[in-house]
Amino acid sequence: IPVQSFDLVLFGATGDLARRKILPSLFHRFQLGQFCDSSRIIGASRSEMDADSFRELVADAVREFGQKDEVNDKDITAFVAQLDYVAIDAKGDQGWEELGKHMRPDKVRAFYLSVAPSLFGDIATRLRSTGIATDDSRIVVEKPFGHDLASAQALNQALRANFEESQIYRIDHYLGKETVQNLMALRFANSLFEPLWNSSHIDHVQITVAESIGVEGRGEYYDRSGAMRDMVQNHLMQLLCLTAMEPPGKFTPDAVRNEKVKVIEALEPVENSDIARGQYRAQNNTGSYRDHAGDPNSQTESFIAMKVQVANWRWAGTPFYLRTGKRLRERVSEIAVFFRDPPHNIFQGSDPAKGNVLVIRLQPDEGITLHTTIKDPGPGGMRLTEAALDMTFADSLAEAERPQDAYERLIMDVIRGNQTLFMRGDEVEAAWAWADPIISGWDDPRHAPQPYDTGGSGPEDSLLLLHRDGRRWRRIG
Ligand code: BG6
Prior knowledge:
This protein is globular. The chain starts with 5 loop residues before the first strand and ends in a 10-residue tail after the last helix. Strand 4, helix 5 and strand 5 form a beta-alpha-beta unit. The chain has 14 helices and 15 strands. By secondary structure, the protein is α/β, with parallel strands linked by helices. The chain binds 6-O-phosphono-beta-D-glucopyranose. 6-O-phosphono-beta-D-glucopyranose binds next to loops.
């Protein structure tokens, strides 16, 4: 369904994220007819260049980072014809008047800040004081949204001094992933799972976001963040919230986000004894984390696993184990819900508890698998084995359009004015309020990250975290 005609200003338009994700995503939505000829994308950044050079830069970015089998020159030419460019100084006067001239009445106005968070306040203030942003304009900001609670509060203040909360779209691209939304459909559009979705029936939940890549090229940023700030406080937290939240009364942005905030507020503080931190070491020809971070003594974690308790009626007694790391065996993101063993085993000599796991896969092979226990087919008596009820979206939806990339969906939601898949200010602050005390003890050398090998499943302590509870991680890949 086409969206309303818009003027989208992309600050940081020549930056890495814009080239890799935002511009190719816009191209694909354009290709699918989602925005009309009168819509405009205006690149804005410090670099002095004319509109044609910007169009060339965008065409190159689409060729390099777009979906290879869908990119073609004809569509690229049509797409870049809708682009314009303004060289602008976020902190000074240059470019603002010209940007103002590009804005047309009766269009949805969206300002996408793909820039360092230290510029959010300056840009938001300029947009307002020049009148370029109006009362129904939208402002979109990228992560990292703060480094801790105080900096997140300062960013919120700077944005709210100029825009209403209903105009602010804080991106967490995990919320735009197909399976993440399917998790909500699975839970709230089926009556099968919800009666079982509590600590009486669920033993524990494992949330894994494993990556095979390292931090090459991003060492400097990453070393100031680590896995906790880069992944857990935002992406894994969002997955935890959607898994644990109560059914909202309706599917509206605030009803959904109210329920997510309640989950974060119910999280118990996490002790260091419930955390395993790791750092990948050098192997074969690949450098170590410290080589990439550029600090031979770095104590930043490239892996973290932790046991989290949601202290409320539904989840008391059901731990959530979270883990994420770089340079692991494979790129796998999943939520695995382990149901409790049947209360009584009538199949003597055979273990019925091999199945009973619901796996929601975010990537690769997005889909949902229910591992069940069945009779081993054939003679040999009543022996049990595991069988999977598998729904890989790519197979079952073969005829349909390919699933949208997270950014495609999220940018179109901005134009539509739908905030459901964006983080609200109080949500981000609650997540930092939970994360800050955890991080604060890590200067202590006793909590230094443990080295781990590339291509494995993280440090030994991560395995122990579950072993001591009589549980095991699912294998990565
Ligand atoms: C980003 C992190 O937010 O998410 C990266 O900064 C990480 O470190 C990336 O690699 C993972 O996203 P995806 O979509 O590839 O799982």
